[in-house]
What we know:
- This protein is of the alpha+beta class.
- It has two helices and five strands.
- The strands form two sheets. A three-stranded antiparallel beta sheet has the order 2-3-5.
- A hairpin with a 2-residue loop joins β2 and β3 (50-53).
- The chain starts with 17 loop residues before the first strand and ends with a strand.
- Mean pLDDT is 79; it is low at 8-14 and 85-94.
Amino acid sequence: MHSHQHTYKINVVDAMESLTLEQYRRMVDKVLKFKRANGDLPKYAVIDGCRIEKREYIDMIERVNKFFLEMGRNPGTVDISPIDDISAVEKISI
C-alpha cells in the first residue's frame, strides 16, 4: 500500500478577487478607524484572511464612488484589481 500525499498550492487565482459589499464596507470601516487612530492610512487592510494593499483599496474606493455617482447605487461586489502586475491579494495564514 502506498500512501499518497497531496500538496495544495494557493495560486493568485485561488485568492479573493472581489469583495462583497458587506466585506468592502468592513474594509473601509477598518481603514477609516485606523486613520482616525493613527492619522494616516494603513499600508494594507486584512479582510477575512486576505491582504489588500493600500494602492489597491484606494483604487477600489475610487471605483465604488464613481459607480455610485454614475449608477445611483452601490455595486453588489467590488473587484480587487491587480496593480503593476503584482498579485492584488496574498493569502495570509494566521
